[in-house]
Fold:
Amino acid sequence: MHADFHDWTGLRSCFADDLTVHFPGVTGGESREIAADDFVARWKRYLSRFESTQHLSTNHLVAGDDNGATCQTYFQTQYYRPATNGGGFWTVGGHYEFDFRRTEDRWNITAFVVTPLWTSGNKHLHELAVEQADTNEGR
Structure:
């Protein structure tokens, strides 16, 4: 919910200082390491291009021990941005996989994989948001 409410400090608190991210089907390519501050800054630029977003996750499968864990879950994310051509909604469904590491006082996400399985609605909203986030235009 931190991302949907644009609570970037709260979102950052979920992550270890460095994490591995992989977005097959979205950005393609291989997994890569990124500083959590940079990852959150990218999400902020991207998600701020929408009037609203809603990230839902269900059917959590968690396994681990005292120091580390993994969680697999289905997701559905809806993005809304008023649009004049193609509609204002874009929805993505798929699954997430998270790796967690325990520290003295909390669990932090150390790896994040997003695998989309389907989309519906106006996919051009995504393309527009990426373009504007890359050039820092728009909202």
